[in-house]
Amino acid sequence: MVRKNQEWPDEGDLIVGTVYKVLNYGAFAKLEEYEGKEAFIHISEVSSGWVKNIRDHVRENQKIVARVLRVNPKKGHVDASLKRIREDQRTKKIQQWKIEQKAEKFLELVAKSLDKDLNTAYDEVGYELMDIFGDLYGAFETASDEGEQSLIDEGISEDWAKAITEVAVKNITPPEIHITGYVDIENYESNGVEIIKEALLAAEGKDIAVQCVGAPRYRITVTSDDYIKAEKQLKKAAEKAIAIVEKAGGRGEFLREIDN
Question: Can you give the pLDDT at residue 225?
Fold first, then answer.
C-alpha cells in the first residue's frame, strides 16, 4: 500500500481506492494511499447521467479514481465523486500511483538492506523524503542522477542515503532522449555518389542513425541517456561526414535545426 505523509486527503484531491462494498445508494472503497481510511461514493456522484443500477458503474474489487468532496474524520471516511473527474485526470492519477507503488518497493529493498522493515523505513526516512522531494520516486530519481550526497545535503543520514542510492542506481533507468541534426552534403565528382555514401556510413554508429530527407539533406539522430553527451556525438558525426565530402572536393554544412 502506497502511503501519504498526511492522515487525510484534502478536499478536491484525487484519490485511488478499491471498492469493497456496493449498495443500492452508494459504494464504499478502501483508500490505497491513506491507511485505514475509506471513501463513500453516493449514487448521485457515480455518473453524470441517470444511474438506474449502480452496479452497472461500480463493482466490488474495482480500482477507482475519485475526487474528494468532503472529509469526515468523525465518520471515518471521505465523501467522494467518480463523475467530477476527467478521463485524462484519472489516467494521470493511476500512473502516478503505480510509480509510487514502485518507489515503495524500492524503499522496502532499502529497509531490508539495513535489516529494517518498511514501517521503520517510512518513520525514519520515507515521510521525510516525501516532504523534501514531493514523493518517494522523486527522491530515488534524485539519488540515481546526483548520488548519495544530494540526499545527505538535504539532511538524510549517511546510512539511509547510501542504501537509497544503491537501490536507485540498480533499478532506475535513465530516461532515453533523442536529438536530431542535419547535414547538407554535395559532391559533383564522377564518383560523388560513392563519396556521399562513404560520408554517411562514417557518420553512423552505435545509437546514431542517418536518414535521407531529400538530397542534399540528411538527418542524423542520436539516442542517449545524457543530453550533453548526445550533443557531442551529433556534432562529431556531422563533422565526420562533412570532412570526407570536403576532402573529395565537395561541400558540407551542419544544421542543428531547420528554419521553418
Answer: 77
| Confidence check: pLDDT of 91 > 90 | yes
Q: What is the pLDDT of residues 59-76, one digit of tens each?
A: 999 999 999 999 988 888
The strand pairing partners of 209, in sequence order, are: 221
* Packed helices 227-247 and 192-203: angle between N→C axes, nearest 10 degrees: 160
Cis preceding linkage at 216, omega within 30: yes
Return d(Cα 161, Cα 154) in angstroms, integer: 10
Q: 120 is written with which cell numbers?
A: 521503520
Query: What are the residues facing 252 on neighbouring strands?
Result: 185
pLDDT band at 259 (very low <50, low <70, confident <90, very high): very low
User: Is 29:64 a contact under the CB 8 Å cutoff?
Assistant: yes
Hey, CA dihedral for 160, 165, 170, 172, is it positive or negative? Answer: positive
Q: For the CA atoms of the chain, what is the radius of gyration? A: 28
- pTM of the entire predicted model: 0.64
Q: Under a CB-based contact definition with an 8 Å cutoff, are residues 221 and 236 in contact?
A: no
